[in-house]
């Protein structure tokens, strides 16, 4: 499965899935939205429910996972987006013990079924960057 295909599955799943007691369904979702924000972060998938934000970073290789750790907003997680943060990867690519502090883990199988492996813990997050993201979404939808 390609990165883009996994992002598409993640978007549909985050919008409506049956595990919303653990991860809320989100009505507002953006994928790889390149918008000016104070950190330069471009989330693969970010969703907003009525009371929180969920960030999903898709990884298709361990090299990509390792490179992600070098980004400024990963070194200093408080400037990153997502009250809850998840890595989504093919089953068993990333192990729970490899996760950064407070991150959760989702697996996707060859049929596109997403499973929660590790629940994320609440993180300090960059409210300003998320507002910029939401404003950009609203402007784009207003121009449709």
Summarize, please.
With 144 residues, the chain is an alpha/beta fold. Helix content is 28%, strand content 22%. The model has no long low-confidence stretch (mean pLDDT 90).
Write the layout of secondary structure elements.
Layout: H1 3-15, E1 28-31, E2 45-48, E3 53-58, H2 62-68, H3 72-75, E4 84-90, E5 104-108, E6 114-118, H4 127-142
Parallel strand pairs: 3-4, 4-5
Antiparallel strand pairs: 1-2, 2-3, 5-6
List keywords for this structure.
Trna Endonuclease, Chain: A, domain 1, 144 residues, 6 strands, 22% strand, 4 helices, alpha/beta, six-stranded mixed beta sheet
Characterize the structure shown.
With 144 residues, the chain is an alpha/beta fold. The chain has a single domain (3-142), classed as 3-Layer(aba) Sandwich (Trna Endonuclease, Chain: A, domain 1). It has helices spanning 3-15, 62-68, 72-75, 127-142, and strands at 28-31, 45-48, 53-58, 84-90, 104-108, 114-118.
């Amino acid at each position: 499965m390609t990165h883009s295909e996994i992002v598409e599955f993640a978007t549909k799943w985050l919008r409506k899935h049956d595990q919303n007691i653990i991860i809320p369904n989100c009505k507002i979702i953006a994928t790889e939205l390149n918008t000016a924000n104070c950190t330069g972060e471009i989330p693969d998938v970010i969703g907003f429910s009525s009371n929180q934000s969920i960030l999903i970073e898709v990884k298709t290789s361990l090299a990509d996972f390792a490179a992600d750790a070098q980004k400024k907003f990963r070194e200093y997680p408080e400037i990153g987006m997502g009250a809850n943060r998840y890595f989504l990867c093919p089953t068993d690519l990333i192990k729970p013990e490899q996760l950064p502090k407070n991150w959760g883990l989702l697996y996707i199988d060859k049929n596109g079924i997403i499973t929660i492996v590790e629940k994320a813990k609440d993180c300090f997050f960059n409210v300003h960057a998320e507002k910029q993201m939401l404003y950009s979404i609203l402007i784009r939808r207003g121009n449709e």
